[in-house]
Amino acid sequence: MKFSGKNVLITGASRGIGAQIAKTLANMGLKVWINYRSKPEIADALQAEIVAAGGQAAVIKFDATDEDEFIKGINLIVDTDGELSYLVNNAGITNDKLALRMKTDEFINVLNANLTSAFIGSREALKVMSKKRFGAVVNVASIVGEMGNAGQVNYSASKGGMIAMTKSLAKEGASRNVRFNCVTPGFIQTDMTEVLSEEIKQNYINNIPLKRLGDASEVAETIAFLLSDHASYVTGDVLKVNGGLYM
User: Fold this and answer.
1) Which of 149, 165, 73, 66 is nearest to 115 (CA)?
2) Which of 10, 39, 75, 210 is most buried, most CB within 10 Å of its CB?
């Protein structure tokens, strides 16, 4: 994969899909900034793994929902490396329950963690990237933001909003040669799916045309493509990584 930039910030990168994104992009030659909010030992272990494999990685702590912390984090990266070439807004949470039982703060908290954090990051990245007239941002949304899901009104709203926001950002960033795109993963094999019973997982698989759960590496490689020079004429797009579950 060919990249004209040299570094990338990945929010929520210490575990799960975020960690795989970091490893994939580091393996492709980018310096990866591993963002985490808590549990530094996990982030440090990921950094050590990447460095041991010959890659470049740095760990950076901030809460992506905290505007001041996010801005300081991006400024630190620019001060250290002289630029921020790419951003992957991956940080997010869930708090599932039926809408009838969902409290307003439970709705707002998920929106802030998933959507507002991505807005802050995208806005600040656009400011930095505009100065060099180069950059790319990928927002990690979800299949749920496209098709909805019972018990996930807050999560689906945050991810659906992310998709719409990305399209608007793409129109604003285009004149500055800054691209914004989305990926919408379906059911991906992660720590969260590991705790599901085999029966539940099989029910999911039965509805997926490719008849399997996705692998985090498949999401990471799609993101790598969207960031890379191979996607230099792709902006405002949504790439589905869902095995055909939602077409």
Assistant:
1) 165
2) 10
Instruction: Find the catalytic residue in 36, 86, 155, 233.
Output: 155
Across the chain, the runs of DSSP E, i.e. the strands, are: 7-10, 31-36, 56-61, 86-89, 135-140, 178-185, 188-189, 214-215, 238-241
pTM above 0.85, yes or no: yes
Judge contact between 166 and 235, C-beta under 8 A.
no
Please write the tens of the pLDDT for every residue from 126-172: 999 999 999 999 999 999 999 999 999 999 999 999 999 999 999 99
**Domain housing 61:** 7-241
Inside any domain, residue 25 = yes
Name the phi and psi angles at 103, rounded to 5.
-80, 155
Instruction: Tell me the per-residue pLDDT of 198-240, one tens digit each, with 9 for 90 and over.
Output: 888 898 899 999 999 999 999 999 999 999 999 999 999 999 9
CATH number at residue 18: 3.40.50.720
Give me the number of domains the chain comprises.
Answer: 1
Mark whether 204 is an active-site residue. Answer: no
How far is Cα 205 from Cα 35, in angstroms, rounded to an integer? 32
